[in-house]
């Protein structure tokens, strides 16, 4: 168990936390949520002892071991991948190294023999004999090939290092597990493995994540950072979001009788509990929602941006035809004779580990890159907008956000209109005059989304649009794309985002593409798709014709 008692922290005049009291108990998973800048990662570092609070104490049950997901990708360069994972259990690793050093002595004494016997006992008690097998199993589950296990960390790619450090945090069944954005840079298969791991993890888990499906799958509680406090709620993210929105709506309706409000809340709790019981998630498994009282539900202070894509005209039946499209980038064949036909009403999610292929395809279709071979033709009734993965080139000039956005407004150039538009995207007051060159990642994304809304295209391409966004912005974008009446092509690692928007799934695999008209969850469960996927992932590393 870990307890935060009267925690306060300020930076200058900014108060992040004021007299925070919260207890995290074994058997539960706590999702830490809050607006950007609310202090989610800072609070995790306070719990881990990496940042010292102004007042208060962090108390851990004596004898319990705590691990935290590290973000320093270069901290273990001289160690092998497998060794780095085992280092997550510091005491076991220390015993293992000392044991090896004792046995390596040339002048092995009687005292060394006694020490070796003691170390052997400690080693066995901590599960040392199974350590390498357990570490290897974790690495396999996170998609790291066995051939990489013996390589040094300096020799593997950054996306592999991220997974190794995650395995390090999970290794050895820690009593308290702190995970800050654990799904970053993981593919959907690895995220699913992590969800299953945490659902069966019986100790204390505290996690910060912008992945709503992940929070819904693993969390038994939500800890909301708001107004410098941390308020604890029973249930997963969806339950927190829907209930807080319901309460906020009711508070605006002064005419609604108190009895009606209570009755509506009770009905909501009952419906959610019933639906959750059919879902694969920790919330329903532990049946904690049944213990919820009405006083536990409070409205959130957080604001949601207004996002809505309304095309000026409906696209016709001829949307896009791609014929034998090929592209080599830095000597690597990324696209090889790709053939696709897009249809009216398509909302296509591009999935799979071939991330460069998706970005290259989007860049070609947007005219930012030329194919080596083949051609593509947009229908005459289509107009398209593009959300690139890297948007830095749009923010090189020292323009205010207002002047920057004005250039993309076709008709209305008036300051009042532009400032009002930005206000809906949470750039209020003087924030609308901010210099574009100093914007954060999340602010840049909201600017690009504003640009797309003003362009009013009937075909939108989005390359990982949820990166840098907070949960509120992701939810607003998600709902906007569900309502969008045009054609959509997008790439995202957000399971819920993909499953609720896409009606067609195209997966890039090492041996070709799979193209199916179905929702994402159905795609993942389809036996025919899974059989074909196994064949294509065993195929040579090149893209063939669409299948």
Structure notes:
- The protein is α/β, with parallel strands linked by helices.
- Among the domains are: 76-168, no CATH class; 236-296, no CATH class; 320-394 and 453-537, P-loop containing nucleotide triphosphate hydrolases (Rossmann fold).
- It has 19 helices and 18 strands.
- The strands form 4 sheets. A 6-stranded mixed β-sheet has the order 5-6-7-3-8-9, with helices on both faces. The chain has a 6-stranded mixed β-sheet with strand order 14-15-16-12-17-18, with helices on both faces. Strands 2-1-4 form a 3-stranded antiparallel β-sheet, with no helix packed on it.
- A hairpin with a 2-residue loop joins strand 10 (320-329) and strand 11 (332-342).
- The chain is globular and about 90 Å long.
- Residues 277-286 and 541-547 have low confidence and may be disordered.
Q: Give the beta-strand count.
A: 18
Instruction: Order the strands across the largest sheet as they lie in space.
Output: 5-6-7-3-8-9
What is the CATH domain class of the domain at 320-394 and 453-537? Alpha Beta
| Annotation field: number of helices | 19
Structural class: alpha/beta
Q: Give the % helix.
A: 25-40%
Named at the architecture level, the CATH assignment of the domain at 320-394 and 453-537 is 3-Layer(aba) Sandwich
In terms of DSSP E residues, the strand content is 15-25%
Integer average pLDDT: 85
Spatial gap, N to C terminus: 52 Å
């Amino acid at each position: 168990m870990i307890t935060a008692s009267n925690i306060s922290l300020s930076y200058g005049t900014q108060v992040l936390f004021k007299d925070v009291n919260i207890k995290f108990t074994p058997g539960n998973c706590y999702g830490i949520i809050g607006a950007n800048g609310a202090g989610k990662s800072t609070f995790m570092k306070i719990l881990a002892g990496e940042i010292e609070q102004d007042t208060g104490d962090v108390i851990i049950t004596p004898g319990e071991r705590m691990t935290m997901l590290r973000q320093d990708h270069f901290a273990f360069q001289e160690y092998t991948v497998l060794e780095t994972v085992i280092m997550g259990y510091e005491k076991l690793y220390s015993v293992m190294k000392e044991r090896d050093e004792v046995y390596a002595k040339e002048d092995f004494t009687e005292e060394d023999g006694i020490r070796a016997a003691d170390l052997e006992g400690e080693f066995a008690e901590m599960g040392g004999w199974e350590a390498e097998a357990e570490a290897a199993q974790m690495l396999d589950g996170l998609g790291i090939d066995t051939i990489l296990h013996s390589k040094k960390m300096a020799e593997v790619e950054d996306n592999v290092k991220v997974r190794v450090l995650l395995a390090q945090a999970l290794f050895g069944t820690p009593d308290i597990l702190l995970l800050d954005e654990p799904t970053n840079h993981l593919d959907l298969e690895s995220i699913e493995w992590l969800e299953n791991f945490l659902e069966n993890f019986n100790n204390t888990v505290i996690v910060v994540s912008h992945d709503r499906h992940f929070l819904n799958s693993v969390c038994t509680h939500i800890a909301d950072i708001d107004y410098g406090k941390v308020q604890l709620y029973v249930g997963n993210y969806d339950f927190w979001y829907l209930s807080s929105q319901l309460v906020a709506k009711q508070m605006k309706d002064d005419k609604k009788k108190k009895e009606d409000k209570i009755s509506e809340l009770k009905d909501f709790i009952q419906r959610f509990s019933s639906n959750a019981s059919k879902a694969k998630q920790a919330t329903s498994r532990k049946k904690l929602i049944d213990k919820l009282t009405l006083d536990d539900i409070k409205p959130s202070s957080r604001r949601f941006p207004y996002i809505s894509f309304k095309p000026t005209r409906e696209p016709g039946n001829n949307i896009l035809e791609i014929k034998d499209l090929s592209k080599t980038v830095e000597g690597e064949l990324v696209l090889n004779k790709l053939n696709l036909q897009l249809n009216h009403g398509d909302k296509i999610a591009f999935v799979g580990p071939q991330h460069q292929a998706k970005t290259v395809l989007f860049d070609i279709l947007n005219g930012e890159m030329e194919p080596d071979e083949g051609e593509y033709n947009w229908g005459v009734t289509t107009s398209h907008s593009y959300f690139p993965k890297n948007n830095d080139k749009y923010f090189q000039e020292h323009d205010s956000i207002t002047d920057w956005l004005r250039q993309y407004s076709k008709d209305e150039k008036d300051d009042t209109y532009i400032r009002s538009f930005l206000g809906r995207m949470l750039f209020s007051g003087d924030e609308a005059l901010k210099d574009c060159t100093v914007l954060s990642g999340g602010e840049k994304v909201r600017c690009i989304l504003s640009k797309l809304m003003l362009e009013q295209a009937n075909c939108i391409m989005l390359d990982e649009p949820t990166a840098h966004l907070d949960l509120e912005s992701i939810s607003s974008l998600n709902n906007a794309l569900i309502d969008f009446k045009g054609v959509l092509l997008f790439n995202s690692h957000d399971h819920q985002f993909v499953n609720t928007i896409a009606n067609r799934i195209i997966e890039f695999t090492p041996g070709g593409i799979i193209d199916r008209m179905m929702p994402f969850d159905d795609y993942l469960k389809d036996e025919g798709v899974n059989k074909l996927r196994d064949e294509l992932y065993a195929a040579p590393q090149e893209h063939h014709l669409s299948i």
